[in-house]
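Example record used in the benchmark description.
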Amino acid sequence: MTVKDSDNKNYMVVGSSPIKHDGSDKTTGKAFYGADITLPGIIYGKVLRSPHAHAIIESIDISKALAHPDVQAVATCDDLEIDPPTSQQVVLRKTESHNILATDKVLYKGHPIAAIAASNPHLAEELLELIEVKYTCLKEVMDVETSLQIGSPVLHDHWEQIDNNYSNNLAEVQHNVMGDLEKGFQSADCIVEREFRTKSVHQGYIEPQTSTAWWSPENRLTIWTSTQGHFTVANNVSRLLGISNSQVKVIPMEIGGGFGGKNPIYLEPVAAVLSKKSGRPVKMTMTRSEVFEATGPTSGSYLKIKIGANNEGRILAAKAFFALEAGAYSGAPLPGASAAVFASYNIENVEIKGLDVVVNKPKTAAYRAPGAPIVSFGVETVIDEIASKLNIDPIEFRLKNVATENTRRADGIMNLRIGAKEVMEAVKKHPHYVAPIAQSNGKISGRGIAMGFCRNNSGESCVVANVLSDGTVSLIEGSVDIGGSRTGVAQQFAEVLGLEISDVIPQVGDTDTIGFTSNSGGSGVAFKTGIAAYIAANDVKNQIIQRASKIWDVPESDVEYSKGVVKHKHDDQLKLNFKEISHLLPDTGGPIVGRANINPPGSGASYSANIIDIQIDVETGKIDISKCTAFQDVGTAVNPDTVEGQIQGGTVQGIGWALNEEYYMNQKGYMVNNGFLDYRMPTTLDMPYIDPVIIEVFNPSHPFGVRGVGEANIVPPLPAIANAINNALDIRLEALPMNPSAVLSAIKSKNDTL
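Model output (structure tokens):
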């Protein structure tokens, strides 16, 4: 189902759902992933990881490893350009070299210490025992609340205390105030204040991190890797190895999922060191337990939400405090959380305060709408409670306070054209919202709704289009394809020139063959690279007009191009379709190449919502999702099938976050459930059909009105399920995951108080 606004146009290619260009290769097993790379003389690397969550490294002895005939190379921190210790303000948002190979301390179980290369991965793993490391174990700190307490174990001794109320584990404070908060709460008739806690969860991509490096005798380093940003890999690897960026070529492979988790580098610089020392190509691949224990999950958190409204249902004031775990090094998603926390609502008096806090866990990485699901879990639960206390329908309460164009977000950003209202109205009008909730014998049913938000990103993007003599176009782009973006970008290119999508051949260029392009993340590719494709297509169009004017010996002003045909404005006999003029290019001046290298503003925020029905077994606490309708404003659905898949996939991940998933850590910092058997992600057997509703509110900053679609969908399931539980049981759960044990405990506590 698609809901359009009046500005959305009917296009030829944009808005259709052709078969994806990579679809056949991926479904038949022909696609080339990082693990498929093999080179003459290739050897394999394995990483020695810390068995302790917090310890001083007294010594690393590699002498036995170096003396062993089967050891091809050994890497330690001495082989990297390690950043000197700095205050937390300096290292924020920076690739942390100490996270690649530890120096003086280990800060989480699984922290890399050294690596060995050998003829096969099993032998390399066995040979790790030859490296002797002496530790002095320190007290661990495993959660954000404990870490903030004065007197807690300090992870980084050189960090300053930036707030006297908290320990030196506080890396950053983000504080925004708007309006008169005290006056707003004084005027409120209904005030609700609640505390919430969430656990770390993993992105759950199927393909583990894998990288192959070849440091050639010509002193050129080539890396084949699974990444969301090959230019970022090249930049960071060159810095860590102390070499010029021009010496590093990164080839992005097909990627088996990322969701933000494949933005950082882990294996690439280590494989490069081992290759340089051994003189041979080196492949490194993580095991599943390594992925869980040594790559970035999202933050665990503590948050406190306070909202006040008058009896008419107008929100007068809102306050949010959230402390997010960054893992071992700073970089929790404060900006995303601050943008999202009250983004769906127009609130004049608001305060938000976010803390970035280190703990003895792997350094966090982005995960679909970073920060937004965490804070929205709290806010949307409180919104639902206030609506209930005021006896106002929950969607009507939201509509009374909806954010619209020219209102200001709590993080200070002025809203441009947004679709929050249209999403809420679509929820209100949908048959699911008013339909009876399905009942099941022996179970209690409930329904919940919630809003979601993602601010979306842009960034640098480069596209080069080569018109071939047979009328096809080789479209080279710099954005890694992580969600079907190759086809979506190709559709935008084809739309401008009136081409069949099958005549556009998109491919992702390596760092030597395409201009700098920022990472594929923040739901930015369809926007930024789509605009680049649009500009490149218009460049091609203008060159075709110029070429036709020369062929016909007429002024350019007398020539026009429309729907795949270049023609004279006044002479119907002078016209050539795209294929015909392509055939003439070699003999009339040579090839036509369209180019674009841009960094466009205005990516446009995306809003989402869920209606979720659940059934609860009160004997076991198990929750089943019986019906789910997922709404999202996507601007313009370039490829509706892909858009629906994104909405469905993000919704399922949000459901998993809400009900099952967590890093189950003991107090020594060991992740107990470090495999897919025990880290419980939803499967098709757990899910009903996720019914996607596409809402199209045109984004004026994009020629086709596109907004990012990949992230806002993960946000609403968390609070929608919490609200459904309350609807069913009259119980407010304020911690994630809401697994059977938590539900059963809440039921028991309620019964004990009756």
